[in-house]
């Protein structure tokens, strides 16, 4: 029986893993520029954490989560998103006591049992950031600027930042009543999914991907026109701060985001790089989530984005010209008698931090030279009886073909440029 990877998952093979490492390093560098520090949470959490944070009636909780009962009888879930896990960790470890504003970022796998498609897998990878502990719109502006800066770091500039305010508990309930009245009048023409959401979460109807739904709701009332004074002032200040930060944006009253815990700011970064207009990243403010999960009321804001989608764009635009790791030196053995000396030299160099390789399959000299070429080694030397006796070797630069005689004792300094 041959085992295969589970549907909706993908192995990251050695010839591609260095690309992921390079992308991750670029993301880390931008996060650190904004003074965000990495947090790593467990792969699975209590199922109730996501039911409470994301919402019992969302598709994620209702249809897509990988949940299971462990041997202790507890219901556990592979995390479908990161924010709830980060907030759980924030509360559990009292991170708010250490500093008034906690700024963290993550790179993590996540899991949702949905239909696999381009850029969307059942095990996928997210990067994102959370700023926990502040209600000022300056923090919202920083998060939006941070997420845009990551794409700019990769040379991706053809995107659009779309912002909205989804209000607060005070003004949102009044707006939902008005929206439900509008939607009820056209309910029989909406998709089955949107009809279901009219009573459970009417704002999500405005986020429908169904083209007929989009047309029917063109004239729908938008929450940005029904904000209370506090939310309106916050949103106006956010816009002025984004201008100061040099972030171009458009106000889109239909952006509501898919999770129940958002308040005030909601935003997406949209691009058509993958052939159809789609969100590269999204996020916003969630001032109610910390208290919902058992902590003290703590305003927060954050974003999340998909690694797979970013890498697809970088490949499409040939922005991933990353050199794969390769040995600095390949040492070939002239014959079997020389292999012990080759082994000695290899480990002497490795112990000094120099990347080098040799043949471990006892192949012919010709096969060893082919392997040095396949490994893309910078230099190659051959050690035989003459080289052992003279303690000197001919070093060949594989890119240029230039050869140079050198003492074996001089190898470390030569290879490190000292």
Please characterize this protein's 3D structure.
The protein is an alpha+beta fold. It has two domains: 14-168 and 228-316, BirA Bifunctional Protein, domain 2 (2-Layer Sandwich), CATH 3.30.930; 329-416, Rossmann fold, CATH 3.40.50. The chain has 15 helices and 16 strands. It has helices spanning 14-33, 47-54, 59-64, 83-92, 137-153, 169-185, 192-200, 211-216, 229-245, 289-292, 307-316, 339-350, 365-374, 385-390, 411-416; strands spanning 37-38, 44-46, 66-69, 75-78, 102-111, 123-132, 160-165, 249-251, 263-271, 278-285, 300-306, 329-333, 356-358, 379-383, 392-397, 403-407. The strands form three sheets. The chain has an eight-stranded mixed sheet, with helices on both faces. Strands 13-12-14-15-16 form a five-stranded mixed sheet, with helices on both faces. Helix 12 links the parallel strand 12 (329-333) and strand 13 (356-358). Helix 1 (14-33) runs antiparallel to helix 5. The model has no long low-confidence stretch (mean pLDDT 91).
- Name the structural class: alpha+beta
Classify the fold: give the CATH topology of the largest domain. Answer: BirA Bifunctional Protein, domain 2
Write down how many β-strands occur, each being a DSSP E stretch of 2 or more residues.
16
Estimate what percentage of residues fall within beta strands.
Answer: 15-25%
